[in-house]
Design a protein that fits this description.
Layout: H1 5-26, H2 51-62, E1 71-73, H3 76-94, H4 105-116, H5 118-137, H6 145-154, E2 161-167, E3 175-181, H7 198-214, H8 219-239, E4 255-257, H9 258-264, H10 270-276, E5 284-287, H11 290-302, H12 305-320, H13 326-339, H14 349-360, H15 362-373, H16 376-399, H17 405-417, E6 419-423, H18 441-457, E7 479-481, E8 486-490, H19 505-521, H20 543-561, H21 577-595, H22 603-616, E9 619-621, H23 623-632, H24 638-646, H25 650-655
Parallel strand pairs: 3-5, 6-8
Antiparallel strand pairs: 1-9, 2-3, 4-5, 7-8
Length: 673
Amino acid sequence: MSYIMKKAFILFSLFFLIISTVSCATNFQPSSEEVVNMNLVDQKINPCEDFFQYACGNWLKTNPVPADKAELYRFTEIDENTLLILKNILQTYQRGENMPPQAESQKLGNAYSACLDIDKNEISAKEVMAALLKKNHFLQNKNNLMPLLAGLHEQGINPFFTIYAMQNPGEATQMIGTVDQAGMGLPEKSYYFDKDNLEIRTQYVTHIYHSLLLAGIRSTEALEQAKKIFKLESEIAKISLSAIEQQDPVKTYNPIGKMSLQKLSPQMDWSIYFKALHFETSDTLNIVSPQYFKRLSALLNKTSLTDIKAYLDWQIIHETSNFSTLALQQEYFNFYGKTLNGKKEQAPHWKKCVSSVDKSLGEALGEAFIKVAFGQESKDMADTLVANVKSSLKEMITKLDWMDVETKTGALKKMQSLNQKVGFPKHFKTYHDLAVSTDSWFENQLTSNLFHFNENLKKANLPVDRNEWGMTPPTDNAYYDPTMNEIVFPAGILQAPLFNVHSSIAANYGATGATIGHEMTHGFDDSGSQYDELGNLKNWWSEKSSQTYKEKAQCLIKQYSSYTTNEGIHLNGELSIGENIADLGGLKVALAAYNKTNSQVLDSDLKIFFIAYAQSWCGQLTKEAARTQINSDTHSLPKFRVNGVVSNLPEFADAFQCMDTQAMAPKNRCSVW
C-alpha cells in the first residue's frame, strides 16, 4: 500500500505510540529486532549432532511453556505483539474514537465491549442457550430432524455433518456446495478406539457430564446421557474418514447429484434441509465421503430419538462453551486446554476478546492493523523474496534428473501461473449486514456465525472470486491453496523476529524465505501435486515420474516415523508427509535463492542462513499437546522440522563441517527437490 509522505509519517508515529502505550501498561517486551539472535545458541551443543538444540538451546532454557499455553515458539513474540496492537486499536474504537480510520470502527468497538462485559454475558448466555435447548426438546420425530439441523448448522453448531461452499476441484473456476462429516468432540477418530487413549476417553465422558450439569440438564439424567452421547459419537467415529484419509484430494472429491445423495442416505430428507437453509443448490454437490452419509443414514435410523436429542443437547453446549458462561468456559478449558494440551490456566479474557473480534470482523480489524504495523518497505522486500524464491524453484524443476519432460512441462506451467498475495487484500470485506450489539458476546458470536455461514454458502455455483483471502491480515501464518494455485502471506507473519527489513539477507532468506519456499512446494506435495496450473484436480504426472516421486516421499515417511519424543511416542510420518516435503523443499529452494543474491557466499553466511531457519522453529510443547499434535496434526514437532530437514542437506554438513558419522550428516539422505 502506498501512502503520501505525511500519511506515512502519521501511521509510523501511531505504530510506535501503540507499542509504547501497551508496553508501559503491561510490562510487555517488544519483539527482538534481529531474525538471528546468537544469544539463543547453546555453544555447548555440537550443531552436527543436534542442530535444533544448538540453535535454540538457550531459548529453550529460558522460555518454558507459560501456564496459559500448550506450546510456545519464538514467533509467539509476534502473536503477543499483534494482540497488544489489536487490543489498543479496539480500545480506541471502544471509546468512540476512529483512529486509525475504519468504516466499521463502531462495530469493532461494540464487539470488543460485549465480549469484555462478563456480567451481561452470564445472563444472556444462559437465556439464549436455554432457548436453543428448548427448541431441540420440541423435536417430536425424526422427520423434523433435518430442518432442526439446518438451523444449528447456520449458527456454527455442526452435529452429524456440515455444509459449506468451496472451490470445485474438478472445475476450479466455479464454487461448489460441499457436504462433509462432522460431530465428534475428540480430535480424531482414533481417540475413540486406540488403547493408548483410554484415559482420555474416560475424562471426555466426565467432561460431557459436567457440561450437561452446568447447562441445566438434571443431575439424575446427565450421567446416563453422557454415556449415550459418547456411544453415539463412537458410532460416528467408526464411519468417519481418518485424518490421513482426509488428506487425499481424490478420495474426498465426489461430485454427485441431489437425487443420488437422497438415494445414498434415504433416512435424511435433503430437500427439506436445503429448503430450510434457503439454499438453491444446483444438481451437483461434492460429498466428501459418500460412505459416511450412507452409514450415517442407517445410524440415524437405528438410533432412538431420545439419544439423538441428548447428542444434539451436547453439540449445542459443546460448540458454544468457549463463549458461554464462565463455568462452561472453565469446563471447556479443563478438558481441551488441560487434559488434551497440558495448559495450566486460561489466557487473559481480553485476549479471547481480541481473537473473537478478529474471527467475526477480521478484515475490518486487519485493515486497521496494517495501517500501524506493516509498511511499504516490508511489503516490497517480501514481494522481492517471493519473486526470487519462485524463480529459483522454477530453475530447480528444470534441473531435476528424476522428472521427465512431460511432467516438467506441467510443473513449470504451474509455477508460471502461481499467484502471490502478500500483506493484505486489494479490497477489504464489508460487514454492512452483520449486526453487532454491546449486550451479549454469546449472541454476537451466533450472529457472526450465521453471517459468515450465509456469506459462504451463497457462493455455491458462482464463479470463484480470486481476490478473496482465507486469512485475515494480522494472522501469523501463511498458506498455499491448490485449487487457487496461490500462496498467501498476511502482514501478521511478516514481522520480527521472523522477518525484518534491517536484518541480514541470509537471515531473511533462512527464516521467511524458507516459509515462502515451503508454501510454494506445497503445490507439489502428496496432495498439491494432484492439481494442475489452473487448480483443477487432474493428473498431469507421467506414470514414471509419479512412481519415482512416491518412492522419494516414502523415504521421508520412513525417516520421520523413526523419530520419537522424550516419552517414546513415534511421529506419524504418513500423516505429516505433505508438510515434511514442503519443509525440506522450502529450505532447499530458499538456499538456492539466497545463493543467487551473492557471487560469493561464505560459510559464515550459510551458518546464519541455517541458524535463522532453526530459530524460526525454536519452540516447545507440553507433553499432552505434543501427543495431540502427533495424533491429529499434519505438522511435525519443532525439533524434527529442524533436524529432519537440515540432515537431508549436504550444504548444511559442509557449512558446519559435519563428519559422516554424525547425526546431522547421515549416510543416506532423503531428497525430493
